[in-house]
Amino acid sequence: MLDGKKRLRKRRKIKKSFVYILRCADDTLYTGYTTSLDRRLKEHQMGSKKCKYTMAKIRRPVALVIAWEIEGTRGNALRIEAFIKTLTRKKKK
């Protein structure tokens, strides 16, 4: 605390964020979060080093199964992503 005043943490709003599920060529499912869905899908398709799971050629090409646009903070989107990752494969389909 500075000068006896509590420092308040500001929550930043994100204009757009997405949680998405991809189907990989080896029939696995990948769940992710991004603020730019088009850019992120291109990165997955190209095997960018930023996309460690889909970087392997065996997992490409990838296909978008579903994407949700999430409103609110980044934390909201990450909590939804984490919840989806806990679901079984059967429930994701």
Structure in words:
The chain is α+β, with helices and mostly antiparallel strands and 93 residues long. It has a single domain, classed as GIY-YIG endonuclease (3-Layer(aba) Sandwich), CATH 3.40.1440. It is 29% helix and 23% strand. It has helices at residues 37-46, 74-86, 89-92; strands at 17-23, 29-34, 63-70. The chain has a three-stranded antiparallel beta sheet with strand order 2-1-3. A hairpin with a 5-residue loop joins strand 1 and strand 2. The model has no long low-confidence stretch (mean pLDDT 88).
- Gap between N and C termini, in Å? 49 Å
What would you say the CATH architecture is? 3-Layer(aba) Sandwich
Number of domains: 1
CATH topology: GIY-YIG endonuclease
Q: What's the level 1 CATH class?
A: Alpha Beta
Q: What share of the residues lie within helices? A: 25-40%
Structural class from helices and strands? alpha+beta
Shape: globular
Strands, count: 3
Topology order in helix (H) and strand (E) letters: EEHEHH
Q: Which percent band covers the strand fraction?
A: 15-25%
Unreliable stretches covering 5 or more consecutive residues: none
